Amino acid sequence: GAVVSQHPSWVICKSGTSVKIECRSLDFQATTMFWYRQFPKQSLMLMATSNEGSKATYEQGVEKDKFLINHASLTLSTLTVTSAHPEDSSFYICSAREAAEKLFFGSGTQLSVL
Amino acid sequence: GENVEQHPSTLSVQEGDSAVIKCTYSDSASNYFPWYKQELGKRPQLIIDIRSNVGEKKDQRIAVTLNKTAKHFSLHITETQPEDSAVYFCAASTGSARQLTFGSGTQLTVLP
Predict the structure, then answer these.
(1) What is the pLDDT of residues A65-113, one digit of tens each?
(2) Cβ atoms within 10 A of the Cβ of B50, count?
(3) Nearest to A49 among B46, B93, B99 (CB)
């Protein structure tokens, strides 16, 4: 299947700092990427849909000023968690759509905010 | 919006037995239904998918069935092996961006 790369795989930061997570489609172009959040032993919750060259679409309850998404090219989307707090600690995972609706996931980023 | 319900939340089977996981969806416009396998701390891996114009699809020990009228679909794993142990998620594709809505997941444990 297609390869989606996500970095970093884990990050520890102090409360109040910002953290940027990158998601890259390595062998295909993705006009649309998705960002999910996953708590331990729970399902993936869609946070936002990232569209290349336009503003992201956020799901209800997700603060767009808190979770900044940039999709500047057909192979890269970034999620920045601004002014992170302990409650933002979670597993963040991106996905990118290859042709015909197949969705492939990045390896995820475990964020721990102290 | 779309709502996907998945059952059971946990499932234990003996090695060699079959496992069945069921999902229902609410949006009749959904037309793509993938299944993902996620091992602890790793990314979800697509294991099989089905489109609404097909009733059943099989890939070796894995099969998926879809009943559009009843709006439910199921994952069938035959001859289970310990390495099948993982969390399995169903999903339905909907919305203008065809985003996936996931079920709550099933922790499958295959006992040796």
Answers:
(1) 999 999 888 899 999 999 999 999 999 999 998 766 788 899 999 999 9
(2) 20
(3) B99
User: Average pLDDT over chain B, rounded to whole?
Assistant: 93
Q: Which residue of B has its CA nearest to A57?
A: B97
pLDDT confidence tier of residue A59, bands split at 50, 70 and 90: very high
A46 vs B contacts (CB less than 8 Å): 99-101
pLDDT, average across residues B97-101 = 82
Partner B contacted by A1 (CB < 8 A): yes
d(CA B104, CA B4): 8
